[in-house]
Amino acid sequence: MSELRGIYTLWLREVKKFLREKPRLLNAICQPLLWLFIFGTGMRFSSGMPGINYQEFIFPGLVVQAMLFTAMFMGVSVIWDREFGFLKEILVSPISRTSVFLGKMLGVSTDVMIQGIIIFPFAYLIGIPVTVFMVFEALPLMILITTGLVCIGLTFASLMKSFEGFGLIQTFINLPMFFLSGALFPLANVPIWLQWASYLNPLTYGVDALRTVMMGDTWVQLFPMELDILVLVCFDIIMFIIGKTAFCRTE
After folding, report:
1. Where this protein primarily resides, as one coarse class (predicted)?
2. Quick one: how far is CA 241 from the chain centroid?
């Protein structure tokens, strides 16, 4: 019971921290609007995708982008906790380090899911008919995408000692993963080498699955849905093992 209580406490702490930071919530609302209505409108008339509304095309990619950047950013909480001594206190508590990692991962994942869900109402502004059925189909995919990304953030935060170093690593990981995911452009129109680089990116499969759910028959799926889900599950398992191992060795 103490393990479960410890996991719940750490989860609740991360969620409360996120909800109390009003600037971050404001940023969660404003940033997608900028991408949708400035970047999206500009590219809509020059993207060269007949029959597809570019804003509708990038909408699933923006949901994934919000989750990616939030997941990586929230990893910094490990460094903050180490800096202020909180990490040392929970590491010497009776619960195992695996439970500590699980509690932080679940808490940060909840924050990331909130960040992604906040964007959904904006779909109505660009004419995407979001239904309850679509949301229920998208949520499990978002959880699969979130879990692996959060584990990446926590892994690097466990290994890094400074905020500056983590910021550099965060940028080094975020931008390639985002640009290679096909969130902003269709991968069918890019050179072969770029396609293969994108296929090595697990986020590509998340964007493809989410786009299939949100765009329906308008979108020609890159991979079968089963393959998208299989890659995401494998990504989550591998990153969880790596993240737990790195966190258990942290000091």
Report:
1. membrane
2. 18
* Non-local CB neighbours of 223 within 8 Å, separated by 6+ positions: 205, 208
How many CA atoms lie less than 13 Å away from 180 in the CB half-sphere? 18
Q: Give me the numbers of helices (H) and strands (E) for the chain, helices first please.
A: 12, 0
Indicate the pTM of the whole model.
0.87
Q: N- to C-terminal Cα distance for the chain?
A: 26
- Amino acid identity of residue 6, one-letter, is G
The domain total for the chain is 1
Type of residue numbered 163: F
Q: How far is CA 195 from CA 53, 181, 204, 212, 235, in A?
A: 22, 10, 10, 19, 19
Per-residue pLDDT of the chain (251 residues; tens, 9 = 90+): 578 888 898 899 888 888 887 777 777 777 777 887 777 777 766 666 667 778 888 888 888 988 888 888 877 778 888 877 787 787 777 888 888 889 989 999 998 898 888 888 888 887 777 788 888 889 999 999 999 999 998 888 888 877 777 878 888 888 899 899 888 888 887 889 999 999 999 999 999 999 998 887 777 888 899 999 999 999 999 999 998 888 887 76
> Domain span at residue 175?
3-250
- As given in the structure block, the two tokens for residue 210 are 């989410």
Q: Please, which contacts does 222-230 make with residues 24 or more away whose CB atoms are closer than 8 Å?
A: 222/182, 222/187, 222/188, 228/141, 229/141, 229/144
